[in-house]
Amino acid sequence: MALRELTGKTALITGSTAGIGAEAAGLLAEAGADVVVTGRDSDRGAAVVRAIADRGGRARFVAADLTDLASLHRLATEAGHVDILVNNAAAFPVAPTVSQDLESFDAALAANIRAPYLLTAVLAPGMVAKGAGSIVNVSTMAARIGMPGLSVYSATKAALESLTRTWAAEFSPAGVRVNAVAPGPTRTNMVLSTLGEDAAQQIAKTTLLGRLATPREIAEVVLFLATDRSAYLTGATLAADAGRTAA
Ligand SMILES: NC(=O)c1ccc[n+]([C@@H]2O[C@H](COP(=O)([O-])OP(=O)(O)OC[C@H]3O[C@@H](n4cnc5c(N)ncnc54)[C@H](OP(=O)(O)O)[C@@H]3O)[C@@H](O)[C@H]2O)c1
After folding, report:
1. pTM, whole model, 2 decimals?
2. How far is the CA of 171 from the centre of ligand 1 (A)?
3. CA-CA 20 to 30 A from 40: which of 19, 69, 76, 165?
4. What value does the CA radius of gyration of the chain take, rounded to a whole number of Å?
5. For a pocket test of ligand 1, which of 13, 16, 20 has the largest count of ligand atoms closer than 8 A to its C-beta?
6. What CATH number is associated with residue 98?
7. Cβ distance 35 to 11 under 8 Å?
8. What's the rounded mean pLDDT across residues 199-208?
């Protein structure tokens, strides 16, 4: 029986039409939160909302493309007051630095840095006014280790980890905690459709546990950071990478 510790709280989870975000949406809804599911794909968004409702949870879908400023502002307005913001959606450009195209470079900066930045800037003041709130940023182990082909992606996530510390310094004295989780290789469409199963397994073998994470295993860390179970954590980045960055 799940604790209903998020009853009365609203959680906005970007990139919750698939993968880690969809799992996090399910877990936070199970804990009692009203969840705002968002992404570009309305069909997948509707399916996530339906699955949550079927299990007795509360969720609604707001379509948004986080690279589009007007869309981003509409999302923030339609979400209304938010107690928990999970900056999870990301672009995953893969290219050697010498052949990285500028269009993907700019899109990754927009989705991975500018969107979390603007959502936080618009939504954190409401949390500050209430004296409570939790912001969870989803980073990656690649922010800490050099991985060929992931220059832009890794740099955007390193920036997000830096923002996690700055936002903690700015908002935590008012009771708003800001933390990040840095996952290792996880069985989602992002990795499997871009790198393929074999390359994903090769990366998984470099972790101490030798396997991919399930999206649920990462979503459990998001839930932990979103709730008061992590009441004394702020400005922290938790490595959920099967020890890849530890040894
Ligand atoms: N999978 C891994 O191995 C891994 C490892 C480390 C970190 N991460 C991080 O985990 C997070 C979630 O990734 P995932 O693996 O769960 O990926 P995923 O299954 O591909 O899901 C990505 C989500 O982001 C949304 N999204 C992507 N671009 C968007 C945009 N421009 N505007 C709005 N929504 C957008 C997608 O929704 P729509 O398609 O509906 O727009 C989808 O809901 C990311 O921050 C990623 O960097 C993943």
Report:
1. 0.98
2. 26
3. 165
4. 17
5. 20
6. 3.40.50.720
7. yes
8. 97
